[in-house]
Amino acid sequence: MKMQAERLTVIEPLPLPLHEKLFDDSEQLASALARQVAADLRAALARHGEASIALSGGNTPKRFFQQLSQQTLDWARVTVLPIDERWVPAEHPRSNERLLREHLFQHNAAAARFLPLYRPVDTPEMALMPVLTKIANEGLPLDVAVLGMGEDGHTASLFPDLGHDNPALREIGLQPRGRAPVMSVRTAAMPEPRMTLTLSAIFTAPALYLHIEGETKRALLHAAQRDPRSTLPIRAALAGAPSAPTLYWSP
User: Fold this and answer.
1) CB within 8 Å of 222: residues ≥ 6 apart
2) Helical packing angle, 233-240 and 167-174, nearest 10°
3) Is 96 helix (H, G, I), strand (E, B) or coil?
4) Which of the residues 66, 111, 135, 225 could staple to 76 if both were Cys, CB 3.0 to 4.6 A apart?
5) What ranges in 124-192 are assigned the alpha helix state H?
6) What is the pTM of this model?
7) Residue 49 zone, left/alpha/beta (φ > 0; ψ -120 to 50; rest)
8) Can you tell me the distance from the alpha carbon of 236 to that of 251, in angstroms, rounded to the nearest whole number?
């Protein structure tokens, strides 16, 4: 009697959870994200009298910052910190501190408190301990964090080559429940050294958003979301988040 061939069923891994809010253009996205973040900050203020938010840099969030700056809430009790910072002076065109001061700290948000990562010393390593202490004592836990993502799959200043010569650095940066809230970073992908919040610090925020624009980035994000073999930092961010982040995307 012939044995009937067994049929093998290939089980595709489930994608990591991610809520998605999709918009026709960046103006609609910026307005919607600003309203949602403002609501989160008001709720945090009502719960414990103060609020803390960490924001990403780059060109993508400029419209969002401008919209957020006009939201009505008690900004004097809100602490704002950059998720990461290039190690350049605050007046430098590539400074995230400058970006925030020019696009967020105006209108209603001019009253907010700023907690910088940059210090006027030669390297981020020289400033690491005082910055780490300041952030741990005065910036955390966060109430809101808004991440971005690069076309190489980096988020914050956690790049794909993080820890290539020291695996412990990758653990520090991408460990969802690590002890170090801040780390210095050097990457072959960018010219300047950097200071960045680690995922463990970012994940103290109960409201976690991912703001990206463009088809290329969305395709990369979905690929990382579905591929359990991916080593991209954005995959680690999705996998380690205490609850599913919410994507705000426009073409």
Assistant:
1) 15
2) 40
3) helix
4) 111
5) 124-138, 167-174
6) 0.94
7) left
8) 24
97 Cβ partners below 8 Å, 6+ apart? 82, 85, 90, 114, 116, 117, 118
Q: Are 157 and 137 in contact (CB under 8 A)?
A: no
Number of residues that make up the chain: 251
Asked, as a colleague might, if the bond just before 193 is cis with ω within 30 of 0, I would say no
Query: Cα–Cα distance between 87 and 94 in angstroms, integer?
Result: 9
Exposed, middle or buried by CB within 10 Å (0-12, 13-18, 19+), for 128? middle
| Nearest residue to 173 (alpha-carbon basis) of 80, 100, 84, 91 | 84
pLDDT, residue 8, reads 65
Give the confidence band of 230 by pLDDT, cuts at 50, 70, 90: very high
Count other Cβ atoms within 10 Å, centred on residue 229.
6
How many other C-beta atoms are found inside a 10 Å radius of the C-beta of residue 188?
A: 9
Q: How far apart are CA 209 and CA 146, in angstroms?
A: 5
Tokens of 29: 């996205």
pLDDT for residue 9: 64
Per-residue pLDDT tens digits for 131-163: 999 999 999 999 999 999 999 999 999 999 999
Position 42, amino acid: R
Tokens 């290329």 belong to residue: 216
Give kind and range of the element (H or E) at residue 27: helix 26-48
Residue 157 one-letter amino acid: S
User: pLDDT for 163-183, tens place per residue?
Assistant: 998 999 999 999 999 989 999
